[in-house]
Amino acid sequence: MLLDPYSKAIDGIFDWNQSLFGYTFGDPESRNEDDSAASMPKAVVINPYFDWGTDRPPNHHYADTVIYEAHVKGLTQTHPDIPEHLRGTYAAVAHPAIVEHLTSIGVTAIELMPVHHFANDSTLVEKGLSNYWGYNTISFFAPDPKYSSATSAGGQVQEFKAMVRTLHEAGIEVILDVVYNHTAEGNHLGPTLSMRGIDNAAYYRLVDDDKRYYLDHTGTGNSLNVGHPHSLQLIMDSLRYWVTEMHVDGFRFDLAATLAREFYEVDRLATFFELVQQDPTVSQVKLIAEPWDVGPGGYQVGNFPPQWTEWNGKFRDTVRDFWRGEPATLDEFAYRLSGSADLYEHTARRPVASINFVTAHDGFTLRDLVSYNDKHNEANGEDNNDGESYNRSWNCGVEGPTDDPGVNELRSRQQRNFLTTLLLSQGVPMICHGDELGRTQNGNNNGYCQDNEITWVNWAEADTGLLDFTRAVSALRANHPVFRRRRFFPASRWAVAARTVCPTSPGSPPTDRR
């Protein structure tokens, strides 16, 4: 049995066994004809009607936008004011307690980590873990029912729409983190769940001289074949559906460089970009690229077309280096603070092309960034070999939790330094959920498989002082247009601005800057 790629809702879970694979375990050359129907989730026919009332997109200008990256469950699972049966769901994101929190820190757009229906890797299931982040999509149209409180099959669609309507009423846009670069069907060894069994060569990039194998620019085993009309149509139909039927306001494209690989190189003139630009629906919403993948030449920060904004990885790296006292970082810090003209002006873009962030779901939380020099991912079951080893972090003198008041005060000050830089830089700030509360993952910088207290926001231990500080700095940004410029500073003013804001010399010791 194969899932329809155009399913609008899916019910059930994958029961991982040999029937989901096209070969007999232990013999990849064999052909397995076991019936997989009993082990597959099923597509659900839905009633598309929903009373949107007077719903309208908030349509915030990029210059006035503050993005909040959040996981549906991680944000809401432990909130004491949300009824237990709603925690971890779309309904919880729309709960007044969450909406009030978001508006209090000036959030204008929530960027939800993947909500497209995804599969838990069989290898993670065997370890008692799960694909918590959700970057393992199997349906580009269906909202995942794991985040639904509905008791009927397909009820997740109505619940998702209700969430969007409520957030719009509060002036909050909904941006989806979408994974069109690969699917949950893995490498040539399977499983076979949907597109592989329908038209393998149309949907996946295959090795030219041996089409049994997949090209992998994503690090997941496969890459979607965006050079084929069927794949392009699927992606564009999906994007239009989420805008027109689900009323979302934009998309963050995971590993977006893969979508520009019609052949092998990343191409700014790729057909996908042309289709997006020409589409009367998709071209009107916010388009955010994660401007890299793991393939050759995949790091493309600053190289996306004018219509696009980008996660600015150079902002993250430079700001981290500056505040941990790395030498000779002031000049580049000035570029990042002033909107990264060196990256975006040459393509006629403006400061808002830069989605600024210090932390995101992938890596340390803000609190861990100032508390750990090294990753501590032992809970992931890979002997601490997974996750990024070079974090540009500084533990302020002690690794992990400490009772030393001096270290804790320095860490508190460092978090404020990062938040101030983020919220007052030119461009669009993105806060990672829980950073304003002092959320920790205890040094785990790769929580992709941890659906538990490691990754959930602990509202009971929120740092209220840090929260109040975040509210104040966000209000400062909102109340003063100088922090929300729509054009770059004249070049002659960059150095002056940098010296005024950061009156220290390159290479000054950490304590001088903090």
Automatic annotation (TrEMBL):
Domain Glycosyl hydrolase family 13 catalytic: 77-477
Biological process terms in GO annotation: glycogen catabolic process
GO molecular function: amylo-alpha-1,6-glucosidase activity
Family: Belongs to the glycosyl hydrolase 13 family.
Protein name: Glycosyl hydrolase family 13 catalytic domain-containing protein
Superkingdom of origin: Bacteria
InterPro entries: GH, GH13_cat_dom, Glycogen_debranch_GlgX, Ig-like_fold, Ig_E-set
